[in-house]
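Q: What would this chain look like folded?
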Amino acid sequence: MSAIQHRYDFVMFFDVANGNPNGDPDAGNMPRLDPETGHGLVTDVCLKRKIRNYVELTKNNQPGFEIYVREKAILNQQHARAHEARKLTSAQAKAAEPEKKASKSGSSANEAEAVDEARAWMCRNFYDIRTFGAVMSTAIDCGQVRGPVQLAFARSLDPIVPREITITRMAVTTEQEAEKQKGGNRTMGHKFIIPYALYRVHGFISAPLAEKTGFSEQDLDLMWQALQNMFEHDHSASRGEMALRKLLVFKHSDRLGQAPAQKLFELIKAERAGVHDAPPRSFNDYQITVERQSLPEGLELLELL
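A: My prediction, written as structure tokens:
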């Protein structure tokens, strides 16, 4: 399928209740936050992981929709597949044209051509590579790819106050541990939660970069689907109540776009609704508005949720 022909910019709102949306391993898995303002943060890597998981769940490694960055994956093994496929294609082409004379450099492609062909194979076969890009210049070199879809860090609309909750475990792991408890099997642990927070994140989709990776309309539709459903299949003890609340997409009329992304993002306001002398505890405590009258001519605003 051909690559997308329009530029897109989008704004996404999601919230968390009594959970930890993105723990910081440098802070004992406490929710990530901006220490200067107290606002909560969720990394782009965390959100991309959820998109990858949804695509892997729905497509189940169908041809063209494999996931490159996944748990326990050995990346060089995937690079080797690309080079093996390249060699097979080259051998088939050579067999189809036996009368063709060999060049001075030999019948095989030079090293740069080999990397280019391997890179193209990786884009065709791995959804997350042609979407987000990847650095594949390892010992088995497949080059680098700049992905057309990029996400910024998500930031909470208000400062957050993480709570440390003490929990107890009734069981123990080993007999030795049980003996140390002297008749009591309870052990103490801790977990962090945020009572409530609404996060906002910005995203960007480049048509020129999509042309280089082959990111198609089908891929784009799958990404919108993943954004709308990624929290539905990511529930856990620490992320029991996370939900996408709004997904607003600016569709430009051409590949390059009519306006800078930051000007478009400024048209979407998210503010506290009504009297707000108490901390926010639900999505109803906020009001999201769009200045539609200020949209540039020819630009379409899609409200996907």
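Residues 104-109 have pLDDT under 50 and may be disordered.
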